[in-house]
Amino acid sequence: MPYSVITPHKRVDARDPAARPVILQGAVEGHVLVKNNHALPLKKPQVLSVFGYSAATYKTAVPSTSGQGLGLVSWLLGYQSTDVQQILVSIGRNEGNLIKLQSIAINGTIIMGGGSGATTPAYVSGPLDALTNRAMKDNSALFWDVQSPAPEGVPASDACLVFINAWASEGYDRPGVYDDYSDNLVLSVADQCDNTIVVIHNAGVRLVDNFADHPNVTAIVYAHTPGQDSGAATVALLYGDENFSGKMPYSVPKNISDYGALLDPSLPEGDYVNYPQSDFSEGIFIDYRDFESRNITPRYEFGFGLSYTSFEYGSLSVTKTKKANNAARYPSGAIEQGGQVDLWDVLARVKFTVKNTGRVAGKEAAQLYIDTPSGVKQLRGFEKVSLNAGEKDSVTLALTRRDLSEWDVVAQKWRLVSGKVGVYVGASLKDLRLQETLHL
Fold it and tell me: Confidence class of residue 96 from pLDDT cuts 50, 70 and 90?
């Protein structure tokens, strides 16, 4: 990239055409359906209403130097949907000003996080744009209000879509795991529309306990940060052209209090006022491990995700390899990138079958968990299986020495566990269909 993209320079198109289908498929598979009271897929609705600030594409995507250079900053760092002035103040560009950090990107949809991980795609398919194209195809009447905090509903709507987001960026911590503005927006629509579908663009966990149980909220989708094909992917899923196959990479608790002290920052104080530090006293007990250890049932557990079809698991077998019979307590291999090489020796293979028992094709992310001496189940493998209706396939997942070891703080090495190890396979942490025992 040239030093200045707004002055004359040699244009280079570095895009790889082979990446386009991958980018779209990544957006599709990153969506997670967590609630569906027979609201989805949509079937050529006659009247569809769209609400919420995250439905529309941001108003500008130009590397401009106008506005004190803020246009260029927005374009470079993925801040197009935010109040960039506030962002710069919050990350210390204007020291001495204390502000309340924003939880959302109020000026449009988000397709990515902000900061050095941001991208500047050649186009953005926004949800409202893609829904407009679909309405043209289906001859649907489309109404929208992506600006009002409490929009007026359309009584004749077959469905009301509400798009909200949870913004995050390099440079500052998220101020919370939900925000009242967005929750009230959802509730204002749901109070008027008996088929309200919520789509959340979120960089990380976003709680939904304030509206998830509303009788008129019929479906909830975590779209995450879908990239340039955001709208195209969302519409393909909402209308059933594609099937949901994403699973939650984190837990969504029922209430913020379920986190205990985990959300509290380690504030600098005393001798360390200028040198913040954390002792990480929680150890490995974060997210689902923490909730499991404290026997807290989340609203949507780690690994959870719905589909338009159903899957059946069976025929679980766990087989030790020859290396497992001769494995010492500690690895002894040469140290290379990633640690000692024998940490990656396969000590057991887990084989099972997955069958699509529904009426449409779909993909299932089958998950493998094991019991560990720490007292909680831990994910040790997964495989996404693509199956047509009625089709069945076998899956084999490997358990390495590393998978079956825990860190010994005294020896400063990975110590292989011994005795009985529970092996579980299923659709999520709370939906484990098969169980076996591995003896080490």
Answer: very low
Contact in structure between 54 and 201 (CB atoms under 8 Å) = yes
228-244 pLDDT, tens digit per residue, is 999 999 999 999 999 99
Residue type, 275: Y
